[in-house]
Amino acid sequence: MKLLLDENVPRPMAEIVRILLTAHDVVHVHELAGWAGTKDIELYAKGKTEGFQAIITNDVKQLNRPMEVEAIARSGLHRIQYRQNNKHGGLVGLGTAIATVCAALPHAIAELEGADGQRLVSLTAVDPSRHNRLQITDPKASPPKHWPTS
After folding, report:
1. Pro residues bias located where (predicted)?
2. Domains in the chain, start-ordered, CATH in brackets?
3. How far apart are the C-alpha atoms of 24 and 143, rounded to whole Å?
C-alpha cells in the first residue's frame, strides 16, 4: 500500500511508520517536490492521481469542514487519523502520537488491504497522563510479594 503522510504529521513519524510497515511505500508530503503547502482539498485529489491509497493525518477537524469531506469522498482514498494531543506538547505529545500510531496502524493497514471500498480510520489515542502511563511503587511502603524484610 502506498501511504501519504499529511503535512501536519511530524516528520519523525515518517521514519517510524517506514520501520513499522517495511512492505509499504510511506511518503511524507515534505519529501515530494512542490507538495509542501498543498491545501487538504487539493491534497486528496493529488494523492489519488499519484497512486496513493491512504492519507495519514492528525487533523481531526478535517471531517467537520464540508469542502474537505467532499474532497476526501471524491478521492476514494482511505483516511487514517490519529490525535496529537496539544495538551501534552513537546516530547510527551510526540511520544503519545508515536505510541498511538505504533500500536494501531499495522492493524488498520491489515484491515484496509482487505476493504472493498474507501474507509475512514481513527486511531485511538494512548493516554499520556502520568497516572495512566506508569506506576511507581515504594517497596518500603508497599512491598511486593516475596520482598525481603531486613
Report:
1. 141-150
2. 2-133 (3.40.50)
3. 47
Question: What are the Cα distances from residue 126, in Å, to 72, 102, 103?
Answer: 26, 10, 9
Residues sharing a CB contact under 8 Å with residue 120, sequence separation 6 or more, in sequence order? 63, 72, 78, 79, 81
Q: Using CA atoms, how far apart are residues 28 and 15, in angstroms rounded to an integer?
A: 9
Question: Radius of gyration of the chain from Cα atoms?
Answer: 19
Sign of CA dihedral 56, 61, 100, 123: negative
Q: How many CB atoms lie within 10 A of CB 101?
A: 23
pLDDT per residue as tens digits for the range 92-148 = 778 888 888 888 899 899 999 988 989 999 898 776 566 665 666 677 788 778 777
